[in-house]
Amino acid sequence: MATQRTRLIRRIVILVLFVVVVYGGVIGFHSYTAHMVRKALAAKGPPIVTVSTAKAKTATWPDRLSAVASLKAVQGTTLTAQTAGTVTGLHFHSGEKVKKGQLLVQLNDNVARARLQADQAKLVNARQELERQRNLYRRKATSQSQLQSAEAAYREAKAAIAGDKAALANLQVSAPFDGRLGIRQVSLGQYVSPGTGVVDIHQWNPMHVDFQVPQKDVSRIEKGDAVTLTVNALEDKTFKGKITSLASSLDNGTRNLSAQATVPNPKTVLRPGMYGEVEISLGSSRKVVTVPRTALAYNTYGDYVYVVVKGKQGPTAKERIVHTGGTRDGRVAITKGVKAGDEVVIAGQVKLHAGARVKVVASPKAVTHPGGPADDGSGG
Fold it and tell me: For 90-119, how does the pLDDT look when each residue is reduced to its tens digit (9 = 90+)?
């Protein structure tokens, strides 16, 4: 019995030792493999990222300010009924052009016309009585007070007719100026009350362009400065105009100055409510450092670019926060963060991080930019 127990213990000990040796060998093999991989990677260095680059260039740009603009009709309003009544005539179609004074809507005027006819008859009687009193007064057959009463009655009759004509005019809705109508808002037979909207009317030529200028640039603009308007819906067209008015004070909340320019719109392609970008020409030029627009990247800290610098292990990418100026023909002015001659990354930034090793390849042959031609990194 003792011999069997000893044999069993010996077998268990041998089995445990075998498991320990095998398990230790596996762990040792994996540790050795991981060590060799880390050693190989360390010897090889971090992966190299392929990028395209362009040089930051110095360029001479006309001095301009840019701002987001909103278009507004020079004249525009909603035409409304002046008095209560039933619509008996519609003399326009939605969206058509109309002339100043053109009749658009007629309200029921039967009562007003009857009142006018009655007052016209009273005017005839008042005129006849006035003539009779004047003849009698010349013959000294009536008193001056009776003549004055006849004159007053005649004036009252004339005033009554003027009031009747004004009431008839209020039963009509006419175009207050040349313009284009919107969508009709009333129908034949509809009863309308004072203030009921009938139709919108706007004058599209010229157009007002509203925009705002930051406090730091207020002293750089003045009434009469030339502006150029671009609208993203009309990419191939620009519209020239001038600043026609400036606000008398800055907005307390934004510290911006509201400004308004007037732009001719003879073909009426611009519409009220459109938005675009307005450039104000300041009449001078300045030298700026520019980079292609595709070099800019964005994070919570602001705009930044990757600049390629030479290091011991080869070219590496360095992140630089930049301050930007205007944008023109696919290039952006850099006011701080990059100097002329710096090599900036224009393609491949998504794979980069600060300190990444890079391999520079030729720029893509066609890099398109909204609002500008293809840019290959050449000067502005």
Answer: 999 999 999 999 999 999 999 999 999 999
Residue in the block written with tokens 């003792």: 2
- Measuring CA to CA, which residue among 282, 291, 297 is closest to residue 352? 297
65-to-25, 233, 291, 325, 337 alpha-carbon distances in Å: 73, 21, 19, 9, 21
Domain annotation for the chain: domains and CATH numbers: 48-61+287-361 (2.40.420.20), 66-73+203-285 (2.40.30.170), 79-198 (1.10.287.470)
d(CA 350, CA 299): 12
Q: Summarize pLDDT for 212-252 with one digit per residue, the tens.
A: 999 988 888 889 888 999 998 887 788 999 999 999 999 99
* Contacts with 57 (C-beta within 8 Å, 6 or more apart), sequence order: 289, 290, 291, 340, 378, 379, 380
* CB-based contact 217:326 (threshold 8 Å): no
**Dihedral sign (CA 144, 149, 152, 154):** negative
309 SS3 class? strand
Tokens 């509203």 belong to residue? 210
Point out the least confidently predicted range of 35-44, 94-103, 139-148, 255-264.
Answer: 35-44
Of 287, 284, 286, the closest CA to residue 225 belongs to: 284
Map residue 365 onto helix, strand or coil.
coil
d(CA 112, CA 358): 88
Q: What is the CA radius of gyration of the chain?
A: 43
pTM for the whole structure: 0.58
Which SS3 state, helix, strand or coil, does residue 338 take?
coil
Q: Which residue has the tokens 């008193």?
A: 143
Which run of H or of E encompasses 318? strand 314-321
- CA-based nearest residue to 68, from 230, 272, 283, 281: 230
For residues 2 and 295, give the distance between their C-alpha atoms in angstroms, rounded to a whole number: 85
Instruction: Tell me the one-letter amino acid at 39.
Output: K
Per-residue tokens: 99: 């002339």
| Contact indicator for 100, 175 with CB cutoff of 8 Å | yes
